[in-house]
Specification:
alpha/beta, 18% strand, 44% helix, 9 helices, three-stranded mixed sheet
Length: 220
């Protein structure tokens, strides 16, 4: 779980994982922090997370976190996302029945506006038709599969797309459980501007234009 100044939502995210810890489904939580100057690290330490400190680059953070994880399965999600009802059954079913595939969740935003629903629907279409779920969808896959496809790349952006492309359609499957993501970072620049900007950057990346590093730090 990559973090950067995530104190506003990290407690809720970690709390949503507690049932999985109690049932033994989650054995460890790895937080990879990109240089928080709020109480993110204190929250992570106080809740028993394993903390890794690194630069504020999500590709690097995810690579470091997955490398440090010790389990046979890895659940990757952002620090501002909460899994919906029934997530443990869905995760256990995937582990038992689909060991050679990576699973991703049904994305929602905690914003009731129509434009937020539109953006979530566009990302759902992308994940289904292009087999490219975003990082906001979360990802569940075995260590063996992660290593087989080369894992995350240390790149400035679209590390989620790079991993999805490495997995390919046959090794990706949607899971019914929802994953609700905080919409604050999307609303900061305005939904319309953000949607157009992200869509343009996505198309340029698919055309081979390398992503530029982020200009400012932002929460994971």
């Amino acid at each position: 779980m990559p973090t950067l100044n995530a104190e506003d939502h990290l407690v809720r995210t970690l709390s949503s994982l507690v049932p999985g810890v109690v049932e033994g489904l989650i054995r460890e939580v790895v937080i990879v922090d990109g240089g928080s100057d709020d109480s993110t690290l204190e929250i992570a330490d106080s809740t028993g997370c394993k903390v890794i400190r690194t630069d504020a680059a999500r590709g690097l953070q995810l690579w470091q976190g997955c490398r440090a994880a010790k389990g046979d399965w890895i659940l990757i999600m952002h620090s501002d996302s909460q899994l919906g009802d029934g997530w443990m059954d869905q995760v256990q079913n995937h582990i038992n029945a689909h060991p050679t595939q990576a699973g991703y969740f049904h994305l929602k935003f905690d914003d009731p506006s129509w434009v937020a629903s539109l953006w979530a629907e566009l990302l759902t279409i992308r994940s289904r038709w292009l087999a490219m779920p975003s990082g906001d969808h979360g990802l569940l896959l075995s260590r063996a599969l992660y290593d087989c496809v080369g894992g995350y790349k240390d790149q400035a952006a679209f590390e989620d797309v790079a991993l999805a492309m490495a997995l390919g359609r046959a090794r990706l499957r949607p899971m019914a459980t929802s994953l609700t993501t905080n919409a604050r970072r999307f609303k900061a620049r305005g939904w319309a501007v953000g949607l157009l900007t992200r869509s343009a950057r996505f198309m340029l990346y698919l055309l081979g234009v390398p992503p530029k590093p982020p200009m400012v730090k932002r929460a994971a």
